[in-house]
Every structure is written in structure tokens, then in C-alpha cells.
Amino acid sequence: MILLMIAVAAIAPGIALLSYFYLRDRYEAEPLRTVLWSFALGMVSVLPVTVLQQLLEQLVESPYLHILLVAAGIEEAVKFVILLLFIRTSKEVNELYDGILYAVAISLGFATVENFVSLLPHGWQLAAIRAVLPVPSHALFAVVMGYYAGKAKFSHAWVKFRLLCQSFFSAWLLHAAYDLILSGRHLWQAAMLPFMIGLWILGLRKVKAAQDKSPFKPQD
User: Fold this and answer.
1) Which residue, among 80, 79, 61, has the nearest Cα to 70 in the 3D structure?
2) pLDDT of 173-204, one tens digit each?
3) Domain extent at residue 60
4) Is residue 220 situated within a structural domain?
5) How far apart are CA 55 and CA 76, in angstroms?
6) Whole-model pTM?
7) Is residue 21 part of a domain?
């Protein structure tokens, strides 16, 4: 019974956020089965992330490089590769917001498994804080990644590479900044609240920009 309750607590934030971003797809809703498939891919991505992190952390001694390369770097790199493969092969990606939605689904799939693993040894003690910090942060890093990846899909070849670089490096640096704040001392951790507020503002602006550029948006 306790395990079931922990599982519900681990899954609920990811499903709630995925539902929110799914409902923001106002003009041409994606098939739910495709969104859930991308969410499942995100869950599976925990395996390569774990293997790569275990390999790399043996080579990295600096705690700051560990945050930059092992934690943020590998997580965002794996999610980025999965997103690009998904966007390239899926016939459902036909507007900019789709890049955001599928990036969020992949990232929340990863965050849900990570959340479950983190809650197992601590029970309910971490459930509330993880529901408002780590899980939403993963989704918001993905919004930025998906925005630029979506733009890249519908852009000319000569700007595609720049947009893909923006897609990966923006999410990577935001993730690294989040981890650095979280690992700091109490005074440094006070920056988490303004950071998360700024992250939400940035993410929602990218969502609105993507919605405004939808080819399915009714013309005034």
C-alpha cells in the first residue's frame, strides 16, 4: 500500500504537467497515443542516462564539472537526441508547438522515473518539494529545448544548425544553473524562487510564441 501511494505521488506531478501542456495545444491537438509514446520514451531514457553518468562520473572529480557534464549535460543530451529522432520520424509534428509538447512529454517521462526513484527511500518527505521544483523544472527546460527544435524543423537548412544548438545549449545551461543553485549554501539557495519564477515566465512566453506561429491558428 505504501509503495502504491509513493508511485501515485511520483507519477501525479508529471501527468498533471503533461496534461497542462497538452491542453495548451489549442489549434491542432496531437494524438494522445503519440504523446504517451513520447512520454514512455522519456521513461526509457533513464537507462542510457544512468549508464553514461556512471561511466563519466569516474572521470570527473570537480563537483562543478559534475553538475555541468554528468548531471545536466548527459540528461539534456540524451533527451535532446531522443527528441530529434522523434521529430524526424513522427508524421504528427506539423507545427512549432509540437516541438514543445513532445519535448515536455519526453522530459516528464524521465522526470517521473527519477521522481519515483528519489521518493522510494524517503517516502512522503520529498513528495511536495519535488512536485514544485525538480519535476516542473524538467518540463520548463524542455519547453525551451522543444521551442528551438521545433523552429529548426520548419526552418531553412542554413539556420537549422544554429537553432538546434540553441535548443540543446539553452536547456543544458538552464539545467546546470538550477543544479548549481540547488547544491549551494542556504544563502545561494534563496535564489531558487526567483529562478523558478523566471523559468516559468520564459517557458510560458515560448509557449505563447509557438501558439501565435501555428499555421492552424484562425485568422482574424
Assistant:
1) 61
2) 999 999 999 987 666 778 999 999 999 999 99
3) 2-212
4) no
5) 16
6) 0.95
7) yes
